[in-house]
Amino acid sequence: RYMVADLEPNFDESSTWQRIYFDLPGHGTTIAPDWLNNQTQMLEILTKVIEQVIGDQKFGVIGNSYGGYLSLGLVRKMPHRLLGAALLVPDLPDDLNNRQTTDASTIVEDMSLFGNLQSDEQWIPTGLVEHSQYALDEIRAHDVPAHRLSDDDFLERLNENYVLPIEIRYSGDPFTQPSLIALGHQDATVGYGRQLQLLPEFPRATVAVVDMAGHYLGRVERPKVFNVLVRDWIERVEISL
Predict the structure, then answer these.
(1) What CATH number is associated with residue 96?
(2) Of 32, 69, 231, 239, which cross-links 91 as Cys (Cβ 3.0–4.6 Å)?
(3) Beta carbons within 8 Å of 182's beta carbon, 6+ residues apart
(4) What is the band of 17 on the pLDDT scale with cuts at 50, 70, 90?
(5) What percent of the chain has pLDDT over 70?
C-alpha cells in the first residue's frame, strides 16, 4: 500500500524493472504463523519468497522502517545476489532493542486540521514534522489502512526477539553496490544517529539526513527530495548493471 504509493512515481511507463511488493507476515493480508518469533525465521521466509518469485536472478532491494532493517539483513546475508540496496528510514536498534532518538517535534503546526480524527488516528499530529492537509490526506489514504491490517499481537511477540541474529547484527564486508540511506532529521521513531554509523559498510551509498522530515519521509513529508534520491539510486543501479 504505502510502499507502492511511495515508489511507483519513480518508475516511468517504459521502465523494465519488475517491481515486487511483498507484505511481510503480520502485515497486509499475509498471515503470521504461530511459530514465527524472531528475525532469523523472518529472513528465512524472505529468502524462500525470493527463491520462489525470482529464482537465482539478481535483484535490488528497497525497505522502509522495519523493512529497511530486514533489507540490511539481506545485504549481510546475501550480498552476492543484490544489485543495490535502498534503506529508507531504516530501523536500527542496538543489542537491547533500544533506539537513538529525540523527542517528536513539530516545526509547522496547524491543529485545526485534526478535528475529526478517528481513535486510531490520534498519533498523526505528533507523527508529522509539518502539519498540512496534503500530509493528512496521504496518511489516511495509504498508511492508516496499512496499519489497520497489521497483526498487533504478532508484532508485539516479534518485538521480544526483534534484533537481527548475532551473525549478521554487526557490519559485514563492505557492500560495493549502489546504495541509498535516506533518513529524517526529526525522526522520533527510529532516529538517524546509529544509521549514520553504517556509512563505512556502504562505500557506494548516498546518505541523506533530510530536514523537516520525520519517519514519514517520502511522499508524505518531503516527496520532491525523496523522489530525487530514489530516482538517483535507480539510475546508479542501472549504470552498474
Answers:
(1) 3.40.50.1820
(2) 69
(3) 86, 87, 88, 89, 208, 210, 217, 226, 229, 230
(4) very high
(5) 100
